[in-house]
């Protein structure tokens, strides 16, 4: 019996590398997902390298180069007070990506445990969590984020908190649905039958099986969070001047569309590309992690 149990427990470990290889092979064959991954890595790279890149200070003004068109001196032109647009674009990537990742991290950290509690225990626990989730879902995501950011006050930190709270219901609902399906599986019933504590059942059997869809949803939600951060900054509720942000750059550029269209062009393209990258990456992860596709 001991030998049989040892072999049974070793079997999943032996299959794990094969499963990982299948996932990677499926993801690698997904051309649009690879394109998305390249875009995401590119923007993350320039955001991380911003402090060491040979670019001007994003807050440095040059009154002799106000609203200058792209040139050898300023590859993306200058803004309304002579600041280098390329430098502000690179530093602005930090704010957008940071807002996307941290706000989604907040949503996952709060939403996943609540979703597990609601789905696994049911009863009044599920009723209370589900009613609160439905109340938050009654308000459109961006409207709720704007309201919370206005209540908390204009700053990048408060914007991330507002976006994170607004995105939390998505992860509660997703996690709850996954847990409801998983908790009736035979291996979970067997764990209960041998008297395994609830905390171990949740950590060993429930959580690992809900992580793949959560990972996909998190990747897709980062794209939504980046748009939300740009919207809040555009409205003056996110990153505050003179710190660069793509949203605040668009807000300023709207006043100079005829005289200096490049001021709006570059942040608009950047938002489009980074959001496209995360969406393509999320779609690829969803296909690669779907067991029905293997």
TrEMBL record:
Cellular compartments annotated: Cell membrane
Domain ABC transmembrane type-1 residues, every copy: 93-282
SUPFAM superfamilies per the UniProt record, alphabetical: MetI-like
Transmembrane segments: 32-53, 97-123, 135-153, 159-175, 214-239, 259-282
Superkingdom to which the source organism belongs: Bacteria
InterPro entries listed in its UniProt record: BP-dependent_transpt_permease, MetI-like, MetI-like_sf, OppC_N
Primary residence: membrane
Biological process (GO), any one: transmembrane transport
GO CC, alphabetical: plasma membrane
Matching Gene3D superfamilies: MetI-like (1.10.3720.10)
Keyword list, A-Z: Cell membrane, Membrane, Transmembrane, Transmembrane helix, Transport
UniProt family annotation: Belongs to the binding-protein-dependent transport system permease family.
PANTHER family: OLIGOPEPTIDE TRANSPORT SYSTEM PERMEASE PROTEIN APPC, PEPTIDE ABC TRANSPORTER PERMEASE PROTEIN
This protein's name: Peptide/nickel transport system permease protein
